[in-house]
Amino acid sequence: RIAECKLNLGDWNAFGKELRKLEKKVKGTYLEPEVYIYEALYYSLNGDLEKANSFLEKTEGFRDYKNSSRTLFLRGIIAYKRGNYREAIKFFEKTDYSFAMLYEARAFALLREPDQSIYVYRRLLSNPENSIDEGIIRFGIVEALFIYGDYSATQIEAEGFLKDFPDHTLTDYVKYMDGVAKYKKGNYDNAIKILLPLTQRDYFEFKDLASYFTGSAKLKTGDIDGAIEYLQRARTGSSVELDEICFLKLAQAYLLKGDISDLEVISSQFASLFEGGKYGGIGYYIKGATNLLQEEREDAIESFLYIVDNYPSSIFRFPAAAYLIYTYLSSGKTEKAISFSNTIVEDLTSSSNIWAGWALLVRAEALYRKGEISKAENIYLHIKQNFKDRLLLGHAKCGLGWCFLSEKRYNEAHNVLHEVANLYSDTTLLIQSHYGLGIVYFNSGNYKEAFKEFAALAKTFHGHSIEPWALLYKGLSLYALKAYGDAVKTWEYVVSNFGNTEAAEEAAYRAADTYNKAAEYDKSIALLNWLLDHFPSGKRAARAQLLLAQNYFNKKEYDTAIQEYAKFLVTFPESEL
Prior knowledge:
By secondary structure, the protein is mainly α. Among the domains are: 84 residues; 89 residues, Tetratricopeptide repeat domain (Serine Threonine Protein Phosphatase 5, Tetratricopeptide repeat), CATH 1.25.40; 67 residues; 124 residues, Serine Threonine Protein Phosphatase 5, Tetratricopeptide repeat (Alpha Horseshoe). It has 32 helices and no strands. Helix 6 packs antiparallel against helix 7, helix 7 runs parallel beside helix 9 and helix 28 runs antiparallel to helix 29.
């Protein structure tokens, strides 16, 4: 009885000591199996399953105890502790204990069978003889949904629990699950609001995880400094696995912040911690990302190429490949981007890894720029059929639309680009889709719709690099609509405000040509001289030089015209003009 009192008081160690005192004294008495079954309970809940099983076998040697509810319950506990949840459920179902039902429900939860789990929990709640605290049962329902990953239902049950049991001993655990569920559903501000107080609780066993998700949520909201603070906190006293994940998130945060010095520190730490295996090459990966951030493209190429060549089993191989192709492409090395991607294309096309998808996407862009449209189109179609990431699919669809546009399949191009424009809010996709739609309209002869697209694009993305190109096409649309004055004004605006862009070269030539046709030769000459000063080797330079000579010829300034024609012959001897 003294032992039972110690058990009921929750003094686990004292309970064990009393049992050991009794063990030798009760031999041959009616208390012998009672002590054995309590010993089995003590050791099973204490984690020593071998001793628990030994005492339970002794208990089962007594006829009246062999298939008793208590023995079956303990058999279930031992199976449960060993992770044999199906076996445990079979034993629990044969008993009439409330606690057996509690363990049965949690076993179903751990098997990711929430419907079965919640069904047992609900039976417990409706049982008038149930002695288990309602808060524990309600906690179990939240946990079952959380383990399964039904984060919408988790939030509903968690909010109900927190309303009914604001001061329960399990309240912080429910808050944690509610906060993580909100994070998983993209409700980052509310996730932070719930999780932040848990990061301050020294006694809370999930304190480090709460810090990790708080930091991750802050990263999603753009609070980079806050993200770094809480990710650093999460590393304090955390497990090796969480420490590794925090390292990755911190690298992302420093990269977004542009904090080169801390990125370099993280990079060197990674390089020493993870020399091979799953995280192999991570130091080189972060170094490459840092190089890219500083526009040190050659160094970035070297780092990414080293990973691809030397870490075949690393999770960073495909991300490095994607960035390598991108770096080649953004450096104007289209042939290099294609030739490198040729070496790993089989690995990329046979993988469902999202980074393989991004690498394929950049490969398709390189092929498109080289003019190999059908090959690019096939890659975009492969991505559409084999990947599910929404943003990746958006880029693949947009690329497909531009392929159709290049092939003059205007109806198909319109349908795909229109879908992207309506479904996505990503800035890059909005620009690419609307710009493409404008060109579809323009090339199809629908100049009014083209004008609307380009005018809206220039206004919406004022200050973006697309603005001068949108204005250039806006002018072309106006010209096609015979609004020549407005077209010239638009092109002159591009020349005045975006003079260092290729769009300005084209705009200057178009305006000069229009002035020439209107016999306003001096205005034409001024624009052509500007063009030749700023773009002496540009795409329009030869035509600009020839048009300049023609302006002087039309003005009957023949000596100057001769000089300009002669300059053309000397400067552009290979021109077809």
